Amino acid sequence: MQHVKIPQDRIGVLIGEGGATMREIEERAEVRLDIDSEDGTVKVESVGDPVTALKGPDIVKAIGRGFAPDDALALLEDDMMMFELIDIEAASRNKNDFRRQKGRLIGEGGRTRELMQELSGAAVVIYGSTLGIIGGPEQVDAVREAAEMILDGAPHGSVYSFLERKHNEMKHKGLEYHQFTG
């Protein structure tokens, strides 16, 4: 059994309308969820295939970090699907720097985050103090590298060029590239 803590405002999303999302996670990930809506603690207990159940806590964590339930459930579609978090606050010197860094990652009108998502094929969400990524290993690496470039102060243009290059490499390698439709 694992314990995952999620923000208060994401509990409703995890449960879903009439408990539908919670039941779908329990069924597909072969786990039982015990949600404490008072403090945001979720107990994730394996009830079926232990290998499938390993993805359960990641699905709950992903929903807690701002992903839509369908995007989080994509972790079950393939053994290679990964969920990764980048702590923006840890890469910032102070509150003002944190706001600036987060703004740079989001971009004007959300354009930078959108481009990271479109060009990598991964799902990308910025919520609170974290940037979350769900995708295959190459996709997650591309977004992580792009985010690190932005956090290190690289101009957006060079980050976009890097993402275009990665996008073309993934297509050229014949990797199964699927555009994320979020």
Attribute tags:
alpha+beta; single chain; 182 residues; three-stranded antiparallel beta sheet; RNA binding
Q: Give the count of helical stretches.
A: 9
Content-based structural category:
alpha+beta
Shape: globular
How would you characterize the largest beta sheet? 3 strands, antiparallel
Computed Rg: 17 Å
Low-confidence stretches: none
Distance between the termini: 31 Å
Q: Can you write the helix and strand succession as a string?
A: EHHEEHHHEHHEEHH
- Average pLDDT confidence is 92
Helix content: 40-55%
Q: Beta-strand percentage?
A: 15-25%
Number of strands: 6
Keywords: RNA-binding
Protein name: KH domain-containing protein
Domain K Homology: 1-81, 82-152
GO molecular function, one term: RNA binding
